[in-house]
Amino acid sequence: MLRVLGIGPARRAGAVFAQRRFMAAAAAEIQVLADRASECLKKTRAVPWYTMAKEHMVPTRHLSRAFEEGTAVRRHWEFQAAQITALADHLYSEELGRADWGAVAREAEMALVDCLCLFDPGASRIQPRSKPAVGDWTPKELHALHSVVVNNFADMGTSEWQLVGVYMNIEGRDCRSMFGLIMNPCMREDVFEAVRDCLAKLPGWDDVQARLPIFGSAQSLQTAYYKYRHRRDQSASRGNQDSRETASPTKGRSPGPWPDPGASGIPVQPPPYAATVDQEVRRQLQQGGKVDWARVGSVVGESQLRCLEACRVDESKAGWTYHPDTFSELEASRVKRFVSMNYPRGTEPNARALSNFLWIHESDCASMLDLLRGRIVWDNYAANRIVNLRDRGVPLGRIASLISPVLTAKGMEKFLRDKLGPEKPRDMTAEEMDTVSAIVKEYHQKLAPNELCTKVRESVGDCDWTKVLGYINKCAGRLSKRDAIWLRDADADEMVRKILAGKTRIPNLAAALDVSKGALNVYLKAHERKMFPREWTLEEKEKALEYFEKFTGAIDWDHMSRHIGKKTPRQCRTMYKELRRMGLF
């Protein structure tokens, strides 16, 4: 072909040499894996060597040598796999339920992941277990699963989960599901059932947390459990209500609300273990001791809270009546602790369970729960008691804590203002308004604001002073075309700077000056516009640009405002954005 194209002998020799050099380089780069070597060898039985060499564009000797090397590698891998499998069978631990892969890796002097890859489940007597339920896992297995995944597998795929399953001797999909639950704890139906089974067998939440170390703490596990139970009970009751409405024989109109069992006289069915709970409680009471609810729960086979809610024994229970003089903070703290430990936020506490826990009548416990929620019936005795304590100089915060732990001093102020406060101040009469107008007209330019207010106060008596100040401001503004607040510019400047710096507030200044907050706010806003004009002069812009170029880090806007002189920190921040947008620095 080269002769037909008109290529000479020298060029033909060079082309052949280049082709041989290319084929040699290609043969040097060929790497045949062990799993493909056997397939290629099978193919060579039907396909001649020269045909495969032509297909891969390599010499026949290089191709046969690559197949021989691949066969040797495959045999070496098979030998190592047999060794690892035999070693894993030998180091199988009945206590762990799996092979000790750390010892296997040390004996074989290989990495743990390589040992897991070489393990052959088909040739081993170790058979993987299936643990789809959360309760089937032991605490040691959960810790081992978390440790092996975190320490040896960074990016988890399907093949990696198979290796984790080999390590744990558990199905890979079960390991994947359980590890996802460990990393993102959530209360599911299977977790709820497992926790409920543990509560029936174990005495406390700390033991349940040690048995199922999924959540961060026993408190978080308890909160998640009760929240899930509350949601499930609500959905079940909603489903029962829907089924009742659907099964109603009345057609053409919607059925009325389902009657309350307690109000309609329909007997409430107790749980099946209620009789056993009552029997055990009576037996402990007859022995003359206090009821041990942990022991009751172990005898019945249910949790302590369920036994407390199911018990209907009311013998020898004490009474408790709310009284401001006999309010017990100790009992209130016990109630709050019981409610917080057993009923999460948003769940209605069970007064029967609290009654059995404190061994106090259920109606009194319901009153205590209402008291702790702030639902207080303000009778005359309580109101008089509050007034007496206030007159004796007891702080309102202390009075509130004596009545209920949820009351605050602000709540007591509201109660005193609404129930026991003085009568509302009267408005000014027409004669008093004329008097105030005449005083302001005569003295608003002669007297200082405080002196003018004192003179007006003497004439109006017990009127609403806020309205009087507003009327003074109105009269003075009508006369002088400005606010009825007269201050020196230096004092006004200081007040404005304190307000901008957050060191004081308008109500505090108004109380100190004995003026209305509205009038003072209007005056200071107008004075602020005079102190800090919105327009920037050329000198101020040059100062700002120098400041921005000098301080390249975080800018102290208060310091910059003082540096420029007549600009607020907010105006400095706005100018900074504008100069940056213009590209000046």
UniProtKB/TrEMBL annotation:
<dbReference type="InterPro" id="IPR009057">
    <property type="entry name" value="Homeodomain-like_sf"/>
</dbReference>
<dbReference type="Pfam" id="PF00249">
    <property type="entry name" value="Myb_DNA-binding"/>
</dbReference>
<feature type="region of interest" description="Disordered">
    <location>
        <begin position="230"/>
        <end position="273"/>
    </location>
</feature>
<protein>
    <recommendedName>
        <fullName>Myb-like domain-containing protein</fullName>
    </recommendedName>
</protein>
<feature type="domain" description="Myb-like">
    <location>
        <begin position="536"/>
        <end position="580"/>
    </location>
</feature>
<dbReference type="InterPro" id="IPR001005">
    <property type="entry name" value="SANT/Myb"/>
</dbReference>
<feature type="compositionally biased region" description="Polar residues">
    <location>
        <begin position="236"/>
        <end position="251"/>
    </location>
</feature>
